[in-house]
Write a structure and sequence with these properties.
With 76 residues, the chain is mainly alpha-helical. The protein has four helices and no strands.
Length: 76
Amino acid sequence: MKFYPQWDDKCSEILRARAGAETNRQIVDAIEAQTGKRFTIFTVSRRRARLGLASKSRNEWSAAITRWRMVRAPRD
């Protein structure tokens, strides 16, 4: 197992196939099982973003809460 392997088309195929149903940790494990290459969760997250694939566990409501807090915050 190489620690800094090269990302290839097989890794991208695995990511595309599993992006809608699995977390980055699960995708890292699947890539390692199928290719023998080990990537960090951060690497898979960046590749997912570059490919425009949505995350399974995306937190859709925190941005709205942050905006609400900013509106409610006292102005200087």
